[in-house]
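[Meeting: bench + compute handoff]

Bench side (C.D.) handed over the final construct sequence. Compute side (W.E.) agreed to return the predicted structure before the next meeting so the bench team could plan truncations. Sequence as handed over:
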Amino acid sequence: MKNISQMLRSFRDNLPNNSRTAIAIDRGASLEEISELAEEEGLHKLVSVLFEAEQEALRDGLDVVEDSAKATETFIHEARKDLPENSRTAAAIDRGASWEEISELAEEEGLHQIASVLFEAEQEQLRNPL
């Protein structure tokens, strides 16, 4: 859940303060509520990540998502859909590059949200190795 919270923070940093999704994140709303509001506001990447987190929680019968790597991979592949074909970040995703490399390229290309999510996921893996 910690990694999902970090992803939410990253998304939140890019939302205007009057966004209903931002307000829900700020008050600690449920993932389901945040997902519904994000859908209404057209935040499809966030919806995809939250959907995967909710499905994982249902499969595990837990209130938390243990497999944050899977949520991160979902985010990466959803973000890829919005990238132009000539993007170096897109090329790195397509060839299965490491999160670190994708993050570095995303930062170079000004894709700060992608870079931030991947950086946080990398840090989480370092704190909690398998």
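W.E. noted at the follow-up: The mean pLDDT is 81. C.D. will use this when planning the next construct.
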